[in-house]
Structure formats: structure tokens, C-alpha cells
Design goal:
mainly alpha; single chain
Length: about 70
């Protein structure tokens, strides 16, 4: 950890474009893995179609409520 901290101390304030591209790609890959794991878990946990439909509707309503919330920052 000390070596990482010393290395980070010497990084410039503006990173090169290739570093931003690498970090963006890494972030996208991790989000994709999490989404894939969520889909696999949902397929195993939710077995009938009615429950899937209800969960989908509740999720959509929750997203719309969150978008229209007056406290949304």
C-alpha cells in the first residue's frame, strides 16, 4: 500500500487520454459483469412469469418515481 501511495503521489494532475480510456473500459466491463450476475440470479430466483411481470412493473414504477421525485439532486 505504501508503494501504491508513493506512486500515486507522483501522478500528474491531468492524466493522458489512454488512461481515461482504460478506466472507462474497465468501468464498463465491471458494470457488465454485475448486470450479468443480476440476470443469472433473477433467472434462478424468479421461476414463474407472473412474478417476473410484477417485479418488472414495480421496478419501472420505482424508476419513474425516482426520476420525478422533487428531492432528486
Amino acid at each position: 500500500m505504501l508503494i501504491i501511495a508513493l506512486g500515486i503521489r507522483h501522478i500528474q494532475t491531468v492524466l493522458p487520454r489512454i488512461v481515461y480510456a482504460l478506466l472507462s473500459g474497465l468501468n464498463s466491463a465491471i458494470v457488465g459483469w454485475i448486470a450479468m450476475a443480476a440476470m443469472q440470479l433473477a433467472r434462478r430466483a424468479i421461476s414463474n412469469q407472473m412474478t417476473r411481470l410484477l417485479i418488472c412493473i414495480i421496478g419501472c414504477v420505482a424508476m419513474f418515481y425516482q426520476c420525478n421525485s422533487p428531492f432528486n439532486l
